[in-house]
Amino acid sequence: MSFILNPGTSPLLVSMPHIGTDIPADLRSDYVPRALAAEDTDWHLDRLYNCLPALGASVLRPRLSRYVIDLNRPPDDAPMYPGASNTELCPTRFFSGDPLYREGREPSPQERQRRREVYWQPYHDALREELERIRAEHGFALLWDAHSIRSRIPWLFEGALPDLNIGTAGGASADASIADAVADAAARYGDVSQVVNGRFKGGYITRHYGNPARKVHAVQLEMCQNLYMSEQAPFGYDEKLAPGVQPVIRDMMAAALAACKALYAR
Q1: Strands lying side by side in the sheet with 3-6
Q2: Cα separation of 168 and 220, whole Å?
Q3: Coil/strand/helix, residue 70
Q4: What are the DSSP calls for 98-130, one per residue?
Q5: Given this model, what pLDDT does residue 84 score?
Q6: Which residue ranges of the chain lie beneath pLDDT 50?
Q7: pLDDT score, position 86
Q8: Can you name the residues that pair with 217 across neighbouring β-strands?
Q9: Neighbours of 7 (CB within 10 A)
Q10: In angstroms, rounded to a whole number, what is the distance separating the alpha carbons of residues 165 and 169?
Q11: Are 11 and 57 in contact (CB under 8 A)?
Q12: How far is 156 from 220, CA to CA, in rounded Å?
C-alpha cells in the first residue's frame, strides 16, 4: 500500500500529501543522486502534529516522495498558480529549479499515466471515501491539508514567506467563519506571522474537496519549516523549536473544528 490511513472519531480528516520519502527501487536510477535525499519533503509533520489523537482526527499519509507523484496536483496537471513557477503531477525539477532526472530519463507520458493510476488515484479514493464516511457519521466534515516548506525558495516565491500560510482557495473551500477562526487562533501568538490566501491559497486537495454546499470544508496550512526544524540537510527536527509551534497548530485546528461544528449547531 502506498499510503497509510488511520481513521479517527471526530469530523476532522488531516491529509499530509507531501510527507512521504520513498522512491521505488525500479525508478531510483532515473533520478540524479541528489534527488534520493528527497530534500523538498514536508518533513516531520507526523511528529509535529502531536495533537491529532486528542482531536480524534483521521490521518492520511503517503509513503512515496512527491518526486514520484505529487498528490496535491490535479490529474490533468493544470498549473495551480498560473504565471508563477509550478511543480508538476510528476515533478521534473527540485524547488531550486534544477533537474530532478538524469538527462533523457524524465518520465514518459505513459509512465506519468501509470503513476497516476497506481499511486495518485488510490490516495484520492481513500481521501474521498474517508470524507464521505465522516460526513455520513457527523453530518459534515473538515479537511485539514497539512504542509510545510522552506521559508525562502526564490524559484517559487520572492523573499521570505509568512510563518503560517492559511489557504481556503480564496474563500471557496471553507466557510469564512472557519478561516476567520483559524486566523484568530494564530493571531493569539504574537511571535508568529500569518496570512490568509496569500501566495499559497491551497492546492488541488483543498480546492477539489472543499465544498461548503455539501458540508465539507477544507483548509490548507503551509507553514515555514524554520519554525520547527533545520532547513538545511539533513533536515533535522528541532526539539527546542518545535514545542513552541505545536500549541499554535493545536489551537488553529481546534478553532477550525469548533467553527465548523458551530455552523451546523444553528
Answers
A1: 3-6, 58-62, 12-15, 141-149, 216-224, 164-167, 194-196
A2: 6
A3: coil
A4: -BSB-TT-SPPHHHHHHHIIIIIHHHHHHHHHH
A5: 61
A6: none
A7: 67
A8: 142
A9: 13
A10: 12
A11: no
A12: 18
Are the C-beta atoms of residues 67 and 11 closer than 8 Å to each other?
no
Residue with cell 538527462: 103
How far is the first Cα of the chain from the last one, in angstroms, to the nearest whole number?
41
Q: Where are the domains of the chain?
A: 3-263
The model's pLDDT over 18-39, given as tens digits with 9 standing for 90+, comes to 999 999 999 999 999 999 999 9
β 194-196/141-149 pair status: unpaired
Q: How far apart are CA 134 and CA 124, in angstroms?
A: 15
**Residue 229: burial class (beta carbons within 10 Å; 0-12, 13-18, 19+):** buried
Q: Is 120 exposed, middle or buried (0-12, 13-18, 19+ CB in 10 A)?
A: buried
CA distance 175 to 137: 20
Answer for the pair 191, 226: CB distance below 8 angstroms, yes or no: no
Which amino acid is it at 21?
Answer: T
d(CA 32, CA 89): 18
Contacts (Cβ under 8 Å, ≥6 apart) of 125: none
Three-state DSSP at 195 gives strand
For Cα atoms 38, 42, 46, give the angle at the middle one, nearest 5 degrees: 120
Q: Which CATH superfamily is domain 3-263 in?
A: Zn-dependent exopeptidases (3.40.630.40)
Asked if residue 123 lies in contact with residue 17, where contact means CB atoms within 8 angstroms, the answer is yes
